[in-house]
Write a structure and sequence with these properties.
about 525 residues, alpha+beta, Beta-Lactamase, Helix Hairpins, 4 domains, 7-stranded mixed sheet, 5-stranded antiparallel sheet, 14 strands, about 20% strand, rod-shaped, disordered N terminus, disordered C terminus
Length: about 525
């Protein structure tokens, strides 16, 4: 007992863990889907920032290079003129450079030193000027390089080699601060980051809303399903949407309704079967005790034996119905099919119930045609169906009512109609009468599975069993079975009143009078 209790606690803890712990759908979605989306957004942001940086840096390089081309073009106009003082001209160009508030222009001597600048201050040189070295080796004589100063500021340096005749300067160099460019890049980075964060938050909240619309109903479904497992079908799932989850809620609610109805019918069936079994058993027991203590009264002895035989047959029929129902449920019901005369089985059924109907004051009419095509089926099972249908017609009729049995051919099908003028079936109960365990009237004997078995047997003969009824008017059961004889037969019908000729040993024959 302690071990079972421990196992139950472990299962409960596991359910709670699955409900809220690391195995929840929300966590799976957050770690897998949302995490992947965030990673993709971050990668996209990095790529966009790198692309923007490359664009701005490239634009800055092009701008400074274009300014350098303007200056070098002006300087090199008179490069081959020996009458021009190129040193003085270059100093004049550098010192009078108009864009010196944005770009600092320098003149570089042949030894690699900076002689003059447009700002008038000595340049802050940190390490070798790789742009100058690269420009001397470049095909166009121009090279650019980005440096980071000791202050942390980045600058762009563009050097262009010049070669005026007799000039002590070998190159011009422009240096521009990248602070403004970096600031612009930072603003773009902030904008992209805000957009990414907005998209991530939008996806997160919309995803959480979507996940909750699934997870919460699923949690509710799980809790109610556990109550269903315990046999409590009173709870229903609240439907919050019209999507697939809403359809699932409807399906589970419908399942609970059907299970509840089935449970109620099963309980009624058990109660009904218990009552049906107790009645014949009581009669058998009572008459057995009477016969044991009785001596010499032959009439009472015969009456008691008839009661015992009748009630035993009744018990046997109920057991056979239960066995057939079990076989149908397990798909073990087998049919021994052969070519049969359906009229023989139907006539025998009418013969069996004629005496009972007469004793109850019910008129049993049988409209028998001269001939019908043969059918391919199991005669014992079909007789079982006819017995069930006629028995129900008599069972739900009262004294003075009429039960009519008719057989005919129509559209290459054998049609068998059993109608009565009994109590009928209500509109609410009519769709359920072929359902297992269902009884429309609990005051009448029966287990409630006879029609379910009969319907299954007819279906396995490729036929149909339909019921039309009106409460207080009567019921008609129509059975159709396919013919195996294509030849049309004459359908001459006659009303036959069947009477049994009895002897002490049993039934000897039938007397039929044609009206």
């Amino acid at each position: 007992m302690r071990r079972q209790k421990s196992v139950g606690v472990d299962i409960s803890l596991k359910r709670e863990k699955n409900k809220y712990g690391r195995h929840s759908i929300t966590r799976h979605w957050a770690v897998n889907n949302l995490g992947m989306v965030f990673a993709v957004l971050i990668i996209i942001e990095i790529l966009l920032v790198l692309a923007v940086r490359s664009y701005y840096y490239s634009s800055a390089r092009q701008y400074v290079t274009a300014e350098m081309n303007i200056v070098t073009t002006a300087v090199m106009q008179n490069a081959d003129n020996p009458n021009v003082n190129h040193n003085s001209e270059i100093r004049s160009v550098v010192e009078g450079y108009e864009e010196k508030d944005k770009i600092e222009l320098m003149a570089v001597k042949t030894d690699g030193s900076v002689d003059i600048t447009s700002s008038g201050f000595s340049p802050e040189i940190e390490g070798a000027m790789t742009d100058y070295e690269s420009a001397k080796k470049a095909v166009g004589g121009t090279a650019a390089q980005i440096y980071r100063l000791s202050t942390g500021e980045k600058v762009l340096a563009v050097t262009s080699v010049i070669s005026p005749r007799g000039c002590e300067y070998e190159a011009l160099r422009m240096v521009a601060s990248m602070k403004g460019v970096d600031h612009q890049i930072f603003i773009v980075f902030l904008i992209i980051t805000l957009v990414v964060v907005f998209i991530a938050l939008l996806m997160f909240f919309s995803g959480m809303f979507f996940i909750r619309s699934i997870v919460y109903p699923v949690i509710q479904i799980g809790e109610i399903a556990r109550q269903f497992a315990k046999g409590d079908f009173s709870k229903r799932i609240e439907k919050t949407s019209e999507d697939e989850v809403g359809e699932l809620c409807d399906s589970i609610n419908y399942m609970a309704e059907e299970l509840s109805n089935t449970e109620a019918m099963k309980n009624e069936f058990i109660s009904s079967v218990s009552h049906e079994l107790r009645t014949p058993l009581t009669a058998i027991k009572g008459w057995s005790e009477t016969l044991i203590n009785m001596h010499g009264d032959e009439e009472t002895f015969r009456k008691g034996m008839r009661v015992i035989t009748s009630e035993t047959e009744r018990l046997s029929q109920m057991v056979e119905e239960l066995l057939d129902f079990s076989r149908i449920q397990d798909n073990r019901l087998t049919l021994q099919k052969d070519t049969i005369d359906i009229l023989a089985e139907l006539g025998e059924t009418v013969l069996i119930y004629q005496e009972r109907a007469r004793a109850l004051g019910i008129t049993l009419n049988y409209y028998e045609p001269e001939m019908l095509p043969f059918v391919y089926g199991d005669k014992n099972r079909l007789r079982q169906v006819f017995i069930n249908i006629v028995d129900n017609a008599i069972k739900y009729s009262d004294s003075g009512d009429t039960v009519s049995v008719e057989a005919y051919e129509q559209n290459n099908e054998i049609c068998i109609s059993v109608s009565d003028t009994g109590m009928g079936i209500s509109k609410e109960d009519l769709p359920k009468v072929k359902t297992k365990f269902f009884k429309a009237n609990h005051t009448r004997r029966g287990s409630g599975i006879g029609l379910a078995v009969a319907d299954e047997i007819i279906q396995r003969h490729d036929g149909t069993l339909s019921i039309n009824s009106e409460q207080g008017v009567g019921t008609t059961v129509m059975i159709t079975l396919p013919c195996i004889d294509q030849k049309k037969k004459p359908d001459n019908q006659a009303t036959v009143n069947v009477e049994l000729i009895s002897s002490d040993d049993g039934i000897d024959g039938i007397a039929a009078q044609t009206d």
